[in-house]
Amino acid sequence: MSNYDWTVESEDAKTRIDKYIAEALGEEASRSQVQLWIADGHVKVNDSHVKSNYKLSQGDRISLVIPAAEPVEIIPEDIPLEIAYEDSDLIVVNKPRGMVVHPAPGHPSGTLVNALMYHCKDLSGINGELRPGIVHRIDKDTSGLIMAAKNDKAHASLAAQLKDHSVTRRYYAVVHGNISHDQGTIDAPIGRDPHDRKLYMVTDRNSKHAVTHFTVVERFGDYSLLELKLETGRTHQIRVHMKYIGHPLVGDPVYGKSKGLKMNGQALHAAVLGFIHPQTNEYLEFSAPLPDDMEELLAVLRSR
After folding, report:
1. Predicted confidence (pLDDT) per residue in 17-69, tens digit
2. Sheet holding 43-45, edge to edge
3. Whole-angstrom Cα distance, residue 229 to residue 222?
4. Cα separation of 109 and 115, whole Å?
5. What is the 3-state secondary structure (H, E, C) of 217-269?
6. Which residues pair with 285 in a beta bridge?
7. d(CA 19, CA 35)
8. Kind of pairing, strands 190-193 and 183-187?
């Protein structure tokens, strides 16, 4: 069960309640799902139940109580996986760019979870059966390492390590612009964009602490190759932070630039993943080489 609370700002006055909540939740729920929650009494405005067509006013207090996830059938699919590590507790996979991590509206199949369900047949369901085994996620158009748990103990341990920021996560990215200093830290809170709740931005309002460390690996004049280390793991963190300092990722369809080099998705790869094994307490660390599309992009930059 999850609880959400919002206070309506002036720019959202006269917006339908179902539209507002659907945008606020982004990929977590469709508008039709929100309408069902409203009809079932899970949504209140100023402590009163409303209908889906209720028009909001500035200052309205919205509360949503999402009921516990009902088990749903996720169809196992025989999709090839590049496995970096696997045992009876967990699996680490090198996810290709373009693959969605878990089923969601618009992506009911072909996801990493569908593939894992076929391969493992024993993923944990600690998070309800909607996202079995998945402890963290990386964006559809980000490639690289992601871990999934096979039992509740492993799931709880890995989730706790993520929460206390002890998991090692290093990424490589190609960004626009020449970053003059060799290293840097971006310490800037991230929250939803009030004008488009599917997007995120650096803001002090309704935001969460976010820290990204970066090192310049190679420079190409008007582009730079970076190694980035996540201290926190906010949604779209690297993409938002790099845009914030004026160096958006190449190929980023949302936070990037429309001019210059193109890529099918952002040039971002989760290259290193390290954590304490939940059963043995041994520190494990895995690495995945840059995918072909990023190597080709770097080859073009080096040959200019």
Report:
1. 999 998 888 766 778 888 889 988 999 999 999 999 999 999 999 999 987 75
2. 2-7, 61-66, 43-45, 48-49
3. 22
4. 9
5. EEECCCEEEEEEEECCCCCCHHHHHHHHCCCCECCCCCCCCCCCCCCCCCCEE
6. 274
7. 9
8. unpaired
**DSSP label at residue 165:** T
Beta strands in the chain (DSSP E): 2-7, 43-45, 48-49, 61-66, 83-86, 90-95, 143-149, 168-176, 183-187, 190-193, 196-202, 211-219, 223-230, 268-276, 283-287
pTM of structure? 0.76
Given the residues 12, 139, 252, 293, select the one marked as catalytic: 139
Q: Decide if 248 contacts 256 (C-beta within 8 A).
A: yes
Is 272 in a helix, a strand, or coil?
strand
User: How do residues 238-296 score in pLDDT, each as one tens digit?
Assistant: 999 999 999 999 999 999 988 888 888 999 999 999 999 999 999 999 999 999 999 99
How big is the CA angle at 270 (ends 76 and 130), to the nearest 5 degrees?
30
Q: Is 139 a catalytic residue?
A: yes
Q: The tokens of 160 are what?
A: 């706790």
